[in-house]
Design goal:
By secondary structure, the protein is an all-alpha fold. It has six helices and no strands. Keywords: DNA-binding.
């Protein structure tokens, strides 16, 4: 469960990072992306572990609130699934059409960027 939570928060961070303060960005990046412990983040900023924990808790709740209102990550997942389904359908039903397959692959690649 912890891996799924970390993966989701990293994805939300990718979408909403510009909306966060520098401090929130730094804490989230070190804790979730760089996998530092609370103590290591606290040492980095010369604050208590409790201060880091509180900041991370507020920041992750803020990311979830942004997602609840804007749905950028959920919409991305829907577009990604649709592009992959289309790619699979084209590969199954139009195997000889290289140009159509290339365009479907391009759509999937666009969604991954």
């Amino acid at each position: 469960m912890e891996v799924a939570k970390t993966t989701r928060l990293n994805a939300l961070f990718d979408f909403y990072q510009p909306l966060l303060t520098k401090k929130q960005n730094d804490y989230l990046e070190l804790y979730y992306a760089d996998d530092l412990s609370l103590g290591e983040v606290a040492d980095e900023f010369q604050v208590s572990r409790q201060a880091v924990y509180d900041n991370l808790k507020r920041s992750t709740q803020l990311l979830e609130n942004y997602e609840a209102k804007l749905h950028l990550y959920a919409d991305f997942q829907k577009r990604q699934a649709a592009a992959e389904n289309m790619q699979q359908y084209i590969a199954e039903h139009y195997p000889a059409d290289a140009e159509l397959q290339a365009r479907a692959n391009q759509l999937v690649t666009l969604e991954e960027e």
